[in-house]
Each structure stands twice: as C-alpha cells, then as structure tokens.
Amino acid sequence: MNELLSRHTTFRIGGPAAALFTADSRENLKRVLAFARVNRIAWKVIGAGSNLLVSDQGFPGIVIKLGAGFAAVDWEKSAVHVGAGVPLAGLVDESAARELTGLEFLWGIPGTLGGSVKTNAGAFGRCIGDQVVEARVASAEGKETTLRREDLKFGYRRSDLPGDAVVTDVTLSCRKSKPDDILRRIEECRQQRLATQPKGASAGCFFRNPRGQAAGRLIDQAGMKGRRIGDAVVSDRHANFILNQGRAQFSDVYQLMELIKLEVEKKFGVVLEEETEILAEGIADAR
Ligand SMILES: Cc1cc2nc3c(=O)[nH]c(=O)nc-3n(C[C@H](O)[C@H](O)[C@H](O)COP(=O)(O)OP(=O)(O)OC[C@H]3O[C@@H](n4cnc5c(N)ncnc54)[C@H](O)[C@@H]3O)c2cc1C
After folding, report:
1. Ligand 1: which residue has its CA nearest to atom 45?
2. What is the pTM of this model?
3. Better pLDDT: 70 or 281
4. CA proximity to 207, closest of 145, 268, 164, 152
C-alpha cells in the first residue's frame, strides 16, 4: 500500500499509488482487473515506467506491474514470443546471441515489451511496430484477444491499443543473419546513443518531433539548454531530455516543460507536444 511510484519510474518522480499489484499470472491479472471493475477503482498498468511523468500526489488507484508469469521468451527460427513484462535490453542481446536480426535498433531503450508496444517505441528510423506480428491482450473485463499488427495501427510513438487493454504477450518477427552484421548494427546504435544521450534520471526524449523537425534542435535554438527549475534541468547534451538531477518534483518538470513550450512557440511558432506521458489528476492525456 502507498508504494512510491518514484521507485518505479526512470524519472524517479511520483507519489504513492493507492496500491501496487504485481500480477504473476494471467489468472492473477484477470482477478485484479475484475476487482478494480467491481469496486470501481481506477487502475493503470506500467512497465519500466520509462515513459512516464507521475505527479507527486501519485495515483489514486491500483498500479499493475507484470511479474513472473509474463517473463517468458520463446525463440523460433523467424519469430520470438515474448511476455509483455520482459525488458527490451535482454531481448536484443539474446537475439544477437542467436544470430537473429530485426531487433538491434531497440538497443538502449529501457522499456518492457508491453510499454513499447503501447508507445510504438523506436529509434534510428525503425519502430517496434515494424516487427510486431501480433500481440495478445486482456481487456478490463478479462477477455483475451489477439490483435494483429494491422489492428494495432502503429504510428509515430503511438498505437491503437485500446485504453483498457493490457498487453500480455507479443510475437515479433526476426530472421537469421550474420553475427558480425548484427553486432555491428548494435554497436552503431550503442555509439550513437553514447554520443548523443545524457546520463541520469529522465524519461528519454520529452517531446515528440514535429513533422520534419527535431524537437531537440528547436529547444536548443530557443536557448533552453541548461535551464533549470529546482532539480529539473534541460540537458546540455541533448535538449529534448529533461533530467532529474536530484530531488526534482513533478511541478519542477512540469513548469520546465511549460517554459520550453512557451519559448519554442515564441521563437518558431511551433507547439511542441509531449512524448512522455503525464500521469496526474486533472491533467488530461489524450492516450
Ligand atoms: C534513457 C531513455 C531513453 C529512451 N529512448 C527511447 C527511444 O530511443 N525510443 C523510444 O521510443 N522511447 C525511448 N524512451 C522512452 C521509453 O523507454 C519507451 O517509451 C518505452 O517503450 C516505454 O516502455 P515502459 O515499459 O517503460 O512503459 P511505461 O513507461 O511503464 O508505460 C508507458 C505506457 O505504456 C503502457 N503500458 C505499459 N505496459 C503495458 C502493457 N503490458 N499493456 C498495455 N499498456 C502498457 C502504460 O500504461 C503507459 O501508458 C527512452 C527512455 C529513457 C529513460
């Protein structure tokens, strides 16, 4: 009870959830969803919390994480079936060890399969939606269905996953390739991330790239690099990263976000949209 969500987000920000429940099996998951439904309690499923900014008031409902029963990885010749709680990191390394290509671009994205399908995580011009064959989901009513890639209608950092659906398993396509080529591609991703991304607590790129433009460049040219509110700072290295350099509160990041949007709009007439999902009462999020 009252588990701090700052312990479950890469930003290390977020007050308590009324309850945090780790579902260790499908049955378990169905039971908690039924409990929430019958008792009219709000719920939210999270993965690694790497795309979330959570308010200091926390979440007045049940935060659900996927545990042991959603950690299986089953490799085939040209596909892998993965539990939605599996972190991307290990998956990429394992695919390389098995001489399978298709997942290299995911290297360095700190999410889980479930969160990555929801957000259609991607990098270097590729996204996970390109590799998804199908995803198995459970609805709030506990009904299980299989959604194919076409059903999920992946777009730029979004999918059509219904708001009340929990991804439980995902099938990704991959194919045999030369180990040297796979390792070279992973190394390229690694080098690019090392060269461009700051270290420290964040949720990755905070804003979506406006069509044909890089949000980071606009923020940089608006003179925002290094701007600070409390312990929230616009990274000097990559202006689209807001870092929590200590004890940043939700309000510090939120105010800094508003300031960035204001300055970018003033200078370029472009209204930036958040890529990081904001979980806070009274702040509507379209997702
Ligand atoms: C250092 C850093 C670098 C990053 N780089 C990238 C990058 O290159 N590209 C990129 O796209 N993103 C990047 N991100 C953002 C983030 O890692 C991705 O969006 C990631 O896919 C989110 O996965 P998650 O498991 O952490 O999801 P969370 O942040 O926990 O949740 C995100 C959303 O997914 C939903 N969700 C989570 N699990 C499930 C599930 N099982 N079923 C249904 N919905 C679910 C949540 O409710 C929420 O709406 C980066 C973040 C950091 C901190």
Report:
1. 115
2. 0.96
3. 70
4. 268
